[in-house]
Inverse folding.
C-alpha cells in the first residue's frame, strides 16, 4: 500500500505534466477507438447484410485487385441447385457506380421474387414489379445522398430509371445503396447474363460440418469459384480490409506519439528524482523495486489516459454518427471487446513507454544518485 | 535475343514518347468518368457524367466521349477516329440529330462547357515531328523528363508548344503545359491521382485542367475503367450514338 502511495504521490507532484501526458495518451487511444469502431462497424454492417438476406453460402470469384468480385455466368445456378443441401439459389450483380452528382455508390441487381428482398422494409412507394420495368428502389441514406424521392428520375450509367420506392434495411451498407431488378443492372453495366455473387439458401437442417463440406465441393467442382459463409464473406471484402488497414495505420501513428509522450514524461520525472532514487537505493530498495515503481507510474498514466481515451473515442463516434453529413453513412461498433482491446493497448503503451526511464533510473549507482541535486 | 531496357537517362525524346504510346496500346477500353467544373472561391460545382469508349482496328483507333448526365448535356458525343497514318476525323453530335464534322473551326470549342477544348481530346501531339528533352524535374515525388513538342508548320492548332513532364518509370505524363501562339501559357493539365491497373500499368485516375489565369478548374475523375476489352464496332456508329440520347 505504501509502495502504491509513493507511485501516486510521484504522479501528483507534477500535476500539470501528468495531466498533459494523460491528455496525449487519451487522444491517441481515442483515435484508435474511434477508427477501429468505425472499421469494425463497417464489417458488422456487411455481416448483417449477408445474414439478413438469409444467405447460408455465397459463391463468388474473388480476385485480389478488384474491389468487387468479377462477374461470371449466372447459368452456374443450375449446377449449384443440383448440389446436396442447396434449397434455393439467387444471383446478384453488384457494382460501384457514380450516380449523377453523388459520390460513388453501391448498386445491386437482384432477382425479383427471390429471398434476398425479404429483409427489406418498404418505407415509401412500391417494389419493382417486373424485369423489364425501368425502376429502382433506393435506401433511405441513398435517398438523402441523391436527393431523390418516389417518382424521381435517376440516371444510372447509360439508362434513366424511375425511383419507385424507398426502403430501409437492417444493414447500413444497403441503406446507402440502389437496388434494381437483375436484368436491368445487367443491361446498364453491359454484363448480360452475368452475376458476381450467387446466394445459396440451404436446408434448415444442414449442419456446420455439412456446410463446410459443401464449401469444399464447390471449390473443387467449380474451378476459380469459392463459397463463403456470411461472416467469412465480410472478412474477405476488400473494402473492409482496406478500412481496417487504414484504421490500424492511423492508430499506429497515434500510439507512437502517445508512447513518446509517456517516455518523455516518465524520463523527466526520473531525472528530477535521481537524488530521491539514490536515497531509496541507499536505504535498501532493490533495483527491481525501482523499476517496478517507475513502470507502475507509467502504467498509471496510461491506464487513466486509456480510460479517458476510450470515452473520447466512443463519444466521438456517437457525435460523428449524429452529424448531418455523416448520419446514416457510418455505424460505429461499441463493444466490450473494443473496450478491453483499447485498455490493453493503453497498458502496453505504459509498459513500453516506462521501460527506458526505468532502466535509466535503476542503473544509476546510489553514490552518483545521491550527489545529484 | 533479349535486349536490356534502356536507362531513363539514355532515352531520347522519341524513345520516351514511344514508351508512353506503347504502354497505352489496348484493344479497347471503357471508362466511366465525372467532369467536375468548379470556380475557386465561389463554391459552385457542376458535374457531368461521361462514358468514354475506345476500339482499335488494326492501326486505327476510335474514341467516343458521351455525356450521360445532366439531361441538358445527355447524349452529346464526340467521336474521334485516328487512322494509322495520323489523320484525325470524326464528328460532334448534339441531340436530337445535329452532326458537325471535326473542322479546324470546331477545335477550339469547349467540350461540355469545361476547360477541355475539342482539340485537347483530338490532338495527337505525340506524333508531332519536333520533340526534345529539355530537362528533368520531380513531379509528386516521381522523377520526370520534360519534353517539348512543337507542331509542324501548317498544322491547324491553337498551341505553339506543349511541355510534358513524363515519368519514364510509369511511362506516363504527369503534367502538361500548353502554350498559345503568343508563347504564353494557356492551360495546365496535372495528374492528381494514379491507379494501378490489373495489367500492372499506371493510369491517371484524376486529371485536373486549369487555365493559366486559374479562374476556374475542371477535374476529370475516372470512377471506373476497363482495359483490354473489345467494344463492339456498332457502338461507334451514329445510330448507336443517337440511341443513347433518347435512351430511357
Amino acid at each position: 500500500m505504501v509502495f502504491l502511495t509513493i507511485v501516486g504521490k510521484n504522479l501528483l507532484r507534477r500535476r500539470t505534466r501528468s495531466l498533459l501526458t494523460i491528455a496525449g495518451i487519451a487522444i491517441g487511444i481515442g483515435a484508435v477507438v474511434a477508427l477501429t469502431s468505425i472499421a469494425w462497424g463497417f464489417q458488422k454492417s456487411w455481416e448483417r447484410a449477408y445474414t439478413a438476406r438469409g444467405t447460408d453460402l455465397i459463391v463468388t470469384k474473388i480476385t485480389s485487385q478488384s474491389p468487387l468480385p468479377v462477374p461470371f455466368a449466372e447459368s452456374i445456378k443450375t449446377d449449384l441447385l443440383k448440389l446436396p443441401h442447396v434449397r434455393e439459389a439467387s444471383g446478384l450483380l453488384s457494382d460501384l457506380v457514380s450516380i449523377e452528382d453523388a459520390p460513388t455508390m453501391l448498386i445491386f441487381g437482384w432477382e425479383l421474387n427471390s429471398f434476398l428482398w425479404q429483409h427489406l422494409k418498404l418505407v415509401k412507394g412500391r417494389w419493382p414489379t417486373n424485369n423489364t420495368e425501368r425502376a429502382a428502389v433506393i435506401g433511405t441514406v441513398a435517398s438523402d445522398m441523391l436527393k431523390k424521392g418516389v417518382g424521381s428520375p435517376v440516371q444510372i450509367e447509360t439508362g434513366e430509371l424511375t425511383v419507385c420506392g424507398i426502403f430501409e434495411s437492417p444493414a447500413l451498407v444497403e441503406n446507402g445503396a440502389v437496388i434494381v431488378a437483375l436484368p436491368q443492372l445487367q443491361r446498364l453495366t453491359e454484363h448480360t447474363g452475368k452475376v458476381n455473387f450467387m446466394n445459396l439458401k440451404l436446408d434448415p437442417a444442414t449442419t456446420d460440418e455439412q456446410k463446410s463440406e459443401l464449401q469444399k465441393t464447390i471449390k473443387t467442382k467449380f474451378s476459380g469459384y469459392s463459397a463463403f459463409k456470411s461472416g467469412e464473406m465480410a472478412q474477405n471484402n476488400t473494402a473492409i480490409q482496406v478500412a481496417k488497414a487504414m484504421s490500424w495505420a492511423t492508430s499506429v501513428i497515434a500510439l507512437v506519439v502517445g508512447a513518446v509522450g509517456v517516455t518523455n514524461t516518465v524520463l523527466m520525472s526520473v531525472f528530477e528524482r535521481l537524488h530521491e532514487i539514490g536515497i531509496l537505493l541507499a536505504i535498501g530498495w532493490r533495483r527491481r523495486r525501482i523499476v517496478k515503481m517507475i513502470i507502475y507510474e507509467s502504467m498509471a498514466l496510461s491506464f487513466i489516459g486509456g480510460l479517458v481515451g476510450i470515452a473520447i473515442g466512443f463519444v466521438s463516434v456517437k457525435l460523428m454518427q449524429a452529424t448531418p453529413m455523416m448520419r446514416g453513412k457510418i455505424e460505429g461498433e461499441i463493444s466490450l471487446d473494443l473496450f478491453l482491446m483499447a485498455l490493453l493497448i493503453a497498458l502496453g503503451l505504459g509498459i513500453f513507454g516506462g521501460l527506458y526511464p526505468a532502466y535509466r533510473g535503476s542503473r544509476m549507482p546510489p553514490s552518483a544518485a545521491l550527489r545529484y541535486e | 535475343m533479349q535486349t536490356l531496357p534502356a536507362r531513363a537517362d539514355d532515352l531520347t525524346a522519341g524513345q520516351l514518347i514511344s514508351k508512353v504510346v506503347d504502354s497505352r496500346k489496348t484493344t479497347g477500353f471503357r471508362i466511366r468518368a465525372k467532369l467536375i467544373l468548379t470556380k475557386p472561391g465561389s463554391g459552385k460545382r457542376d458535374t457531368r457524367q461521361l462514358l468514354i469508349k475506345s476500339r482499335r482496328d488494326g492501326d486505327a483507333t476510335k474514341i467516343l466521349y458521351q455525356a450521360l448526365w445532366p439531361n441538358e448535356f445527355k447524349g452529346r458525343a464526340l467521336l474521334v477516329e485516328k487512322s494509322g497514318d495520323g489523320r484525325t476525323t470524326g464528328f460532334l453530335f448534339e441531340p436530337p440529330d445535329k452532326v458537325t464534322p471535326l473542322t479546324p473551326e470546331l477545335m477550339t470549342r469547349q467540350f461540355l462547357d469545361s476547360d477541355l477544348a475539342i482539340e485537347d481530346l483530338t490532338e495527337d501531339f505525340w506524333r508531332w515531328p519536333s520533340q526534345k528533352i529539355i530537362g528533368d524535374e520531380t513531379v509528386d515525388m516521381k522523377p520526370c523528363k520534360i519534353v517539348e513538342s512543337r507542331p509542324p508548320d501548317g498544322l491547324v492548332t491553337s498551341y505553339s508548344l506543349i511541355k510534358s513532364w513524363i515519368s519514364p518509370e510509369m511511362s506516363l505524363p504527369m503534367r502538361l503545359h500548353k502554350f498559345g501562339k503568343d508563347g504564353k501559357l494557356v492551360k495546365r493539365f496535372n495528374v492528381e491521382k494514379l491507379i494501378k491497373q490489373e495489367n500492372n500499368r499506371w493510369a491517371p485516375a484524376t486529371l485536373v485542367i486549369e487555365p493559366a489565369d486559374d479562374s476556374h478548374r475542371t477535374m476529370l475523375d475516372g470512377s471506373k475503367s476497363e482495359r483490354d476489352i473489345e467494344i463492339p464496332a456498332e457502338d461507334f456508329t451514329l445510330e448507336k450514338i443517337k440511341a443513347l440520347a433518347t435512351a430511357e
User: Anything to note?
Assistant: Residues 10-246 of chain B form a domain with the outer membrane lipoprotein receptor (LolB), chain A fold (CATH 2.50.20.10). The first helix of chain B runs from residue 13 to 23. Chain B has one domain: 10-246.
